[in-house]
Amino acid sequence: MITTLLGGTAAMRQAGKTYLPQWPNEDGDFYKNRQNTATLFPAFSRTIEVLSGKPFSRPITTGEDIPKSILEMFEDIDLQGTNMHSFLANVCESALAFGIAGILVDYPHSEGVKTIAEEKALGLRPYFVKIEGNSLLDFKSKRINGYEVFTQLRFVEMVSEETENEFKESIIEQVRVLDIGSWRTYRKKRNDTKGADEWILHDEGKTSLDKIPFVPIYGEKIGFMQSRPPMAELSYLNVEHWQSKSDQQTILHVARVPVLFGRRLGLPDDESITIGAACAVLSEQEDADLKYVEHTGKAIEAGRTDLQDLKDMMLQIGAELLVVKPGRITVAQTMAEDESGTCALQRIVGDLQDAANQALQLLADWIKEPQGGHISIFRDFGAATLAEASADILIEMNVAGTLSNETLFTEIQRRGMISPDVKWKEEQEKIKSQPPKPGTTQLSA
């Protein structure tokens, strides 16, 4: 469901009856039209985007204990042009959405390379790989010296290979199995004898590490490699909004097309009726009647109210991750005292920071450095109340261009943060009459 929601309107339409049920006795063609015209209000994806952007609204801080050899990797940490700041922001977004994600510290296949000088000459070095929560398959672990460590990890990955056509690449799905000191990959192959696909060993090799270089990041941790998506309830509400909005579109379509009703017109069977502004319909029947039957509109208003209520609930769920627990006056006090006073998003970011530091140590292990060093991620973004937190999300949406200035004003006023006596049109005039802000140029019409 989460993967489909993140795919937007196109993915939701493709999912069909999974998230947009066909009602009993609903005509198949009518349902298909309803499905193909439904549009998704992207509350889930926007909330994930806004929340994951909070800790990365400021650059990550690098510690002085990070070796120069590792610091040089930060500008291209995944060998795909992504810097460390952006990479961790993407991992945070994945953990918030799916409840779990991971950083794999991989190393290019280097068969035949025997010295560090040869590695440098070929540009070989370790790099980060983001593993999505929906790519993880299974794992094995055991407790060693008081720590739970991986003994095996399995996940799905997509790899591209060249084809005979120079303008086309082949995208292949494969399963990677990591064991301590070794790795294997499996690909599907058709077994003509059995008439079914089988997973066949494709490649394998050895690694120089005595551990599996993978670090998990949790959304709402339950246990080792077990977590819940922190925004799960929001995803259900977003699907409900998708369904309710489709119903609302349907009732609007019905209401906008009135039904012409006639009674005892007394017209011959072969005579047609012309309907128009300059036409009249006459009948000799005393009780004849001809009129349009129109929708009363009560269901439309009820539907509109339901959609607005769902939007409010979705906004509240997203804002709750930013609210600091009662008992702390400021976020600064929270950070200085103990973890129990932090908001949920701060705890998730704290886990991400610890995971990133573990991944840095794995980088150090690959290149024989004694330590990988530490980074810090901005965490001073908690809110004291739910109203403040939800207003913060609304402002982020306004800055991103997904919410108008007037709607932002109305929503914040609804939360009691602006006096009800203040009118938007009057406020607009006041804004226009203000002197330009420092550093800006005001143009006259």
From TrEMBL:
<dbReference type="InterPro" id="IPR025129">
    <property type="entry name" value="DUF4055"/>
</dbReference>
<feature type="region of interest" description="Disordered">
    <location>
        <begin position="424"/>
        <end position="445"/>
    </location>
</feature>
<keyword id="KW-0238">DNA-binding</keyword>
<dbReference type="Pfam" id="PF13264">
    <property type="entry name" value="DUF4055"/>
</dbReference>
<dbReference type="GO" id="GO:0003677">
    <property type="term" value="F:DNA binding"/>
</dbReference>
<feature type="domain" description="DUF4055">
    <location>
        <begin position="230"/>
        <end position="367"/>
    </location>
</feature>
<protein>
    <submittedName>
        <fullName>DNA-binding protein</fullName>
    </submittedName>
</protein>
